[in-house]
């Protein structure tokens, strides 16, 4: 991870907008020549920022390049509990990330690591370039750090930033409440491994809107313990679509509920709207809706996969499974790059119930070709949907659409 450029980065804390305190990393010993290790200066600046009570702002000045030779822990709790977004000033700075050989252990899950900070705002219109190509062929790939991680950060705002070529996932949101993310761009090549856009876990009340994600993995992954997630006006592609899961790996009991995705676009994605669970898990995924989705040459536009296993050797169905219920797919329109446009592959142990499809029109991206729907172990109500699909338990049925 070589170069990370942050333009307009504001970390803003306090009550009100008057008499705010401005801090500058230069005043804490940062050099910004791209060669000197500025990690200690950034840590000192954060300590001062977190101790301040008068609406402090941390500024990263223009025309500088700050080398951070290791991951930085921006840890709280901080003294100021409320945050006011200060969007009327521009802070321009360059931050250079460490080379991969400086990460000697597989325990660096993030590079810019925010934790236990209430009312944090990261706001900007610039770029972060993680230069992740050096990481993508490394083994194990799980060692590749996220560019930014938010852990236990309630009342979080993240707006306007562009992240390029992340080593691992671009953004992690873990154990957070009341999060607003908008107008960000997360971009990596379609063949870059594990470069998820946003990974969400154990978090609630997230709003993601007006974003563009083109990645090598899930544009958004909604993992266990998450609820009340609203995603609107997202353009996804390339990437693996928007995924609920995977859930239930290694027999875990995991839950996701109250997810709404609307007015979004899947363009050239490997999947569209996906729910994926392992065969031996437990828990549930319920009250999920995908509404008003545009498809442009997308593979697997609608897919429920309860036999998810990206490995050569996979476990057969066990005695338990994640229960999927009350899922709605409505207003899908556009083209599928795969023959199977709708696949509902549910568990034979705990079948899917309450699956609703209505007002969907999916055709092949290849003129003259047919698309079809497949389902297994799913209770489905389908109206005004092409390709047509009706599932009867437990019979496996395939319905073909007209060319």
TrEMBL record:
Belongs to the glycosyl hydrolase 28 family. Pfam families: Glyco_hydro_28. GO terms for biological process: carbohydrate metabolic process; cell wall organization. The active site is at residue 240. This is Probable polygalacturonase At3g15720 isoform X1. Residues 1-16 form the signal peptide. GO terms for molecular function: polygalacturonase activity. Keywords: Cell wall, Cell wall biogenesis/degradation, Glycosidase, Hydrolase, Secreted, Signal. Its main location: secreted. It comes from the Eukaryota. Gene3D superfamilies: Single-stranded right-handed beta-helix, Pectin lyase-like (2.160.20.10). It comes from Durio zibethinus (Durian). Coiled coil: none annotated. It is found in: Secreted, Cell wall. InterPro entries: Glyco_hydro_28, Pectin_lyas_fold, Pectin_lyase_fold/virulence.
């Amino acid at each position: 991870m070589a170069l990370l450029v942050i333009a307009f980065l504001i970390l803003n804390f306090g009550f009100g907008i008057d008499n705010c305190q401005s801090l500058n990393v230069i005043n804490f010993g940062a050099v910004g020549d791209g060669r000197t290790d500025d990690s200690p200066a950034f840590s000192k600046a954060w300590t001062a920022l977190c101790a301040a009570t008068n609406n402090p702002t941390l500024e990263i000045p223009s025309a500088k390049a700050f080398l951070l030779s290791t991951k930085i822990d921006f840890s709280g709790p901080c003294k100021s509990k409320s945050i006011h977004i200060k969007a009327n000033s521009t802070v321009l700075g360059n931050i250079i990330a460490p080379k991969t050989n400086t990460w000697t252990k597989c325990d660096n899950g993030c590079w810019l690591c925010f934790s236990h900070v209430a009312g944090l705002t990261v706001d900007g219109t610039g770029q972060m370039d993680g230069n992740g190509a050096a990481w993508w062929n490394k083994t194990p790939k799980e060692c590749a750090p996220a560019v930014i991680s938010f852990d236990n950060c309630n009342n979080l705002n993240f707006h306007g930033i562009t992240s390029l070529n992340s080593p691992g996932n671009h953004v992690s949101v873990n154990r957070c409440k009341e999060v607003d993310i908008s107008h960000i761009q997360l971009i990596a090549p379609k063949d870059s491994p594990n470069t998820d856009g946003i990974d969400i876990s154990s978090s609630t009340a997230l709003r993601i809107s007006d974003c563009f994600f083109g990645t090598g993995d899930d544009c958004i992954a909604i993992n266990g313990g998450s609820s009340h997630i609203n995603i609107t006006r997202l353009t996804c592609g390339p990437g693996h679509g928007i995924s609920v899961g995977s859930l239930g790996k290694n027999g875990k009991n995991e839950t996701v509920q109250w997810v709404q995705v609307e007015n979004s676009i899947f363009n050239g994605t490997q999947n569209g709207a996906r729910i994926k669970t392992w065969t031996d898990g437990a828990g549930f995924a319920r009250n999920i809706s995908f509404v008003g989705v545009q498809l442009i040459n997308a593979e697997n536009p609608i897919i429920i996969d309860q036999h998810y296993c990206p490995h050569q050797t996979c476990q057969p169905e066990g005695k338990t499974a994640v229960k999927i219920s009350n899922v709605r797919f409505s207003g899908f329109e556009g083209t599928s790059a795969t023959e199977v446009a709708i696949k509902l592959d549910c568990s034979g142990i705990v079948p899917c119930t309450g699956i609703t499809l209505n007002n969907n029109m999916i055709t092949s991206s290849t003129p003259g070709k047919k698309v079809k729907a497949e389902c297994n172990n799913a209770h489905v109500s389908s109206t005004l949907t092409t390709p047509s699909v009706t599932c009867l338990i437990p019979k496996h049925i395939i319905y073909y659409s007209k060319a």
